[in-house]
Automatic annotation (TrEMBL), chain A:
This is Sugar ABC transporter ATP-binding protein. Residues 6-247 form the ABC transporter domain. It comes from Tabrizicola oligotrophica. Keywords: ATP-binding, Nucleotide-binding. SMART domains: AAA. InterPro entries: AAA+_ATPase (IPR003593), ABC_carbohydrate_import_ATPase (IPR050107), ABC_transporter-like_ATP-bd (IPR003439), P-loop_NTPase (IPR027417). Pfam families: ABC_tran. The keyword Nucleotide-binding applies.
UniProtKB/TrEMBL annotation, chain B:
The chain crosses the membrane at residues 16-38, 44-64, 95-118, 125-146, 177-201, 222-243, 249-269, 276-296, 302-321. This is Xylose transport system permease protein XylH. It comes from Tabrizicola oligotrophica. InterPro entries: ABC_transp_permease. One of its GO terms (molecular function) is transmembrane transporter activity.
Length: 272, 337
């Protein structure tokens, strides 16, 4: 049994009088995908921000490799190997692939104040990193990021994180804005990252996507971990019900089915 | 910088539209005014305008690439002029003291602008609108209080005159043209060749991602505000030394003229896209339109119309170019949506 890379122990977070997170305890191991599920407003974003150093926990502990750590800034978290990829890839639409890949850590040649950005090297490394992750259609590092598809952008961002030595990859709803095919690409890359021994924290509210890659699942409801289970322990319906806050989803489905049965198979009219 | 020459590569250059605009304006004035404006005397007239404008337009353009705006430059020009005139003209203190104080006022106003924008997150248009008026008030109030006048004379000789406010190369070209060319070269190096430029583009593209990538966005924003305010104070100071006097008014025209030059030069108003070379072309285009009209038979009152049409045309063209640049290689590699 491998030790967890990143662990939260009893983390609480409140903004003034508002408690956002209660007593969160989670851990993620290398080569494991932890899926954080939850409806909008369940506290997923705040939890990511705590793990990536944007916010500090009000109380509780963050551990890396068993040692207590604190991330006063995103930079410290990044240096510790925690990398966050946001919904739209966190990339820069009007920058070239090479330039956006190396933002903040540009490869250079030359000396002192006369260092020169090494475009060729940046482009070559960026293209290779993306292709190694299985996106072979990207071959021109001068292409603007905005010209890529949503899935390619996500893949570029994930490749970037992997290239820069991320040990924990936090993916914030990477598939939310994507079509089915594009989402499949991203899921494949999540698997590739996992195969390379990264710990992946995959935030989503699409249960199908979570079940496709997840090893370990945690459901957040109103800032607390409502369920914490391993792959295969729960069915999709059970998870959806949990996320929606109990049996309400099942009863809604039953209601719709009942309506359709008594109205010649027509769904109910949309609410006014 | 240009290893591959594909149509996509050319379109991706923000200055592509600006270069076409410049060519269009050159052709227009060559047809209607002959080639007089391309002879030395004619060139000096628009080069002088372009130089004074360009020294301000480039740092302003960089701020716009970074997603900010600084309209307080309109007040910094008379502030710089008046400071050097009051210190070295009215009080008769050494010119170098006047120069140092004028430039340090630029640094101070830039710091105030930058820190306010970073700390309060109030849009920079509003912050610098405030400092535009505040600085105008300071210039008018202090000048009248100290000198009992709104115009101060200044006589400068020696190296300071030669360096900041003299004519060179046959007595028609302002020394500012050399400053402009030198500074443009420096800006091109730092923005497009050194790695720092990447940070400015990243910041304008997506500030939060840029910060998460470890770029010191706050410090960079403040530095850019200091750069634009100090550049404006520098231009004002040089004008006072050149014309041997400073007025409290004037300088407001720099606000719109610089923004027009920057936009014609292909900088995206919402940030993240543009180039120093583009701004350079945009500034020359603007200067040729304002000065070239004198060499045609048109009444010069029409020059604003030309500038307005030019601005709209440039924005539309730059938008089209940007869209083409985004899709350039996507098509070549086979469509996929």
């Amino acid at each position: 049994m491998t030790a967890p890379i990143l662990a939260l122990r009893g983390v609480n977070k409140s903004f003034g009088p508002i408690d956002v997170l209660h007593d969160i305890t989670l851990e993620v191991k290398p080569g494991e995908v932890l899926c954080l599920l939850g409806d909008n407003g369940a506290g997923k974003s705040t939890l990511i921000k705590i793990m990536s150093g944007v916010h500090q926990p009000s109380s509780g502990m963050i551990e890396m490799d068993g040692q207590p750590v604190s991330f006063p800034t995103p930079r410290v978290a990044a240096e510790a190997g925690i990398s966050t990829v946001h919904q739209f890839g966190g990339t820069f639409p009007l920058m070239s692939i090479g330039r956006s890949f190396f933002v903040g850590v540009e490869p250079t040649w030359g000396w002192g104040p006369f260092r020169v950005y090494d475009r060729k090297r940046a482009n070559a490394i960026a293209v290779k990193a993306v292709q190694d992750m299985g996106i072979t259609r990207i071959s021109d590092g001068d292409r603007l990021v905005g010209g890529l598809s949503g899935g390619e952008r996500q893949s570029l961002a994930i490749a970037r994180a992997v290239h820069f030595g991320a040990r924990v990859l936090i993916l914030d709803e990477p598939t939310a804005a994507l079509g089915v095919k594009q989402a499949t690409h991203v899921l494949r890359i999540v698997n590739e990252a996992k195969r390379r021994g990264l710990a992946v924290i995959f935030i989503t509210h699409q249960v199908m996507h979570a079940m496709a890659v997840g090893d370990h699942f945690a459901v957040l409801i109103r800032g607390a971990v409502a369920a914490d289970f391993k792959k295969g322990e729960k069915t999709r319906e059970e998870i959806t019900d949990l996320m929606a806050g109990g049996a309400s989803m099942a009863s809604l489905e039953a209601e719709i089915e009942g309506f359709m049965a008594s109205h010649d198979g027509h769904p109910p009219p949309p609410a006014e | 910088m240009s290893a591959s020459f594909s149509p996509g590569g050319l379109l991706r250059r923000p200055e592509a539209g600006a270069a076409l605009g410049l060519i269009a304006v050159l052709v227009f004035f060559a047809i209607f005014g002959g080639l007089t404006f391309l002879k030395p005397a004619g060139m000096a007239s628009w080069l002088n305008v372009a130089a004074n404008l360009g020294v301000i337009a480039i740092p302003l353009g960089l701020l716009m690439i970074a997603g900010e705006l600084d309209i307080s430059v309109g007040a910094m020009v008379p502030f710089g002029a008046m400071t050097v005139a009051v210190i070295s003209g009215h009080y008769g203190l050494p010119i170098w003291l006047g120069v140092a104080v004028a430039l340090s006022f630029g640094v101070i106003v830039g710091l105030v602008n930058g820190v306010l924008v970073v700390k309060t997150a109030v849009p920079s248009l509003i912050v610098t609108l405030g400092s535009l008026f505040a600085v105008q008030g300071i210039v008018l109030g202090l000048t009248v209080l100290i000198t009992k006048s709104t115009s101060v004379a200044l006589t400068v000789e020696g190296p300071a005159k030669a360096l900041f406010g003299d004519f060179v190369l046959g007595g028609q070209l302002q020394v500012m043209v050399l400053w402009w060319l030198g500074l443009s070269a420096l800006y091109i190096f730092f923005v497009h060749v050194s790695p720092f430029g990447n940070w400015i583009f990243a910041m304008g593209g997506d500030k939060v991602s840029a910060r998460n990538a470890g770029i010191p966005t706050d410090r960079l924003t403040i530095i850019l505000f200091v750069l634009s305010a100090t550049s404006a104070a520098f231009v004002g100071m040089c004008q006072a030394i050149l014309y041997n006097s400073a007025q409290v008014a004037g300088g407001q025209s720099f606000i719109f003229n610089a923004i027009i030059s920057v936009v014609v030069g292909g900088v995206l108003l919402t940030g993240g896209f543009g180039s120093v070379v583009g701004i350079f072309f945009g500034t020359i285009t603007f200067a040729i339109v304002t000065q070239g009209i004198y060499y045609t038979d048109f009444d010069r009152n029409w020059s604003s119309l030309i500038i307005g049409v030019l601005l709209l045309g440039a924005v539309l063209m730059n938008n089209t170019f940007r869209k083409m640049a985004l899709s350039a290689t996507t098509k070549k590699k086979g469509a996929k949506v």
